[in-house]
C-alpha cells in the first residue's frame, strides 16, 4: 500500500469535494431546474389559452349579433306561432283548423286541445279534431294544412268510412261516400323567456 504525499492528498481531497458538490447538484439542482422548466412550459400554455379566450371574448358581440340576426330571419319566415302564450296559440290553431275544415267543405264534429310539450326551447301546441266530409274535402284540408303558416304538422291521421244511413222508405242502406277523419295537428312557438 502506498501512502500519498501532501500534494496528492490535497488533490484527492479537492477532487472528492468537487465530486460531492457535483453529486449533490445532480441530485438537487437538476431536478429543480427540470421542475422550473415544466412550470415555464405550463405558464406559456396558460398564456396561450388566455390569448385564445380573449379572442373568443372579443368576438362575442359579433356572435351575439349573428344569433340575433338568425332569430330575426327565422321569425320572418313565419314558421312559429307569434302568440304571447301557449293557450292563445292553441285557441288560434283550433280556430284555424275549424275554418280550414269548413272552407274545404267538411263538418267539424269535435275539437280538443292537447297538452303542450316543451322541446329544445320550443313549445309544441297540438289540437285533435274529428270531422266528416268526402275525399275531396280531405284532400283540400290536408293541402291547406301543409301549406299554412305558421307551420302546421299533421301527426296522426285516422280515416274511416262514415256510418251508412238507411233510407226510411226502402229500408236499404245508402252509401254517401263520406269519411270520418280524426287527426292531430301541431304547431310550435318559441318558449317565452
Descriptive overview:
The chain has 193 residues and is of the alpha+beta class. It has 2 domains: 53 residues; 105 residues, Ribosomal protein S6/Translation elongation factor EF1B (Alpha-Beta Plaits). The chain is 53% helix and 27% strand. It has 4 helices and 6 strands; from the N terminus they run αααββαββββ. The strands form 2 sheets. Strands 1-2-6-3 form a 4-stranded antiparallel sheet. It has a two-stranded antiparallel sheet with strand order 4-5. A hairpin with a 2-residue loop joins β1 and β2. α3 runs antiparallel to α4. It is rod-shaped and about 150 Å long.
Features:
193 residues; Alpha-Beta Plaits; 4-stranded antiparallel β-sheet; two-stranded antiparallel ribbon; 27% strand; rod-shaped
- Structurally, the number of domains stands at 2
CATH architecture of the largest domain: 2-Layer Sandwich
Q: Low-confidence stretches at least 5 residues in length (pLDDT < 50)?
A: none
Mean pLDDT: 85
CATH class of the largest domain: Alpha Beta
| Strand order across the largest sheet | 1-2-6-3
Number of contiguous helices? 4
